[in-house]
Write a structure and sequence with these properties.
mainly beta
Amino acid sequence: MTENDDLPREIVGVVKWFDASKGFGFLTDPDGGSDILLHANVLRNFGQSSVAEGAVVRALVQKTARGVQAIEVLSIEASASDPMPAIADLCLAPPDEVARLPLLPARVKWFDKAKGFGFANIFEQKADVFLHVEVLRHSGLSDLAVGEAIALRVVNGRRGLMAAQILSWERAAQEVKEQLPGGGPALSKPRFAAGAV
């Protein structure tokens, strides 16, 4: 124990599990200590309502009376796996091609984790975009809430539009900001027309 044990420290941990309905989950401690509590409110402050098992989280953590807890999420990356999930409609689009697709602002129409899919509406468009649970997990998320603001990279599948990548709104805004010359202004949250969902 040192005098700095109670000060916040930055870690990069892996999500052991996260249950949005319970409102918490745990990260592994890269230093081999006890698991680190990740509360849903801390995750929501980052702009996500869920995080997939195996996702890599960079966070500020602090020792409390109840153990070490994440106090701020700094970044979330999907687990290191194949470049894209093995979904027939997505196999036609190489990962580098998907990465060049524009990020489109969307809102979750509905998503059923048990069924493994759902739909979103792209801002100011009427067509639904299919959301597959494997694409969601590959994007570092585990679930979506109705009305949640997200950003999508969309491909034309055999049965219509489908998401090839799903990002939290905040993560998409940060990605766009980093791509602009001089780190220009980030995206602003879209205003969705009434009845768009």
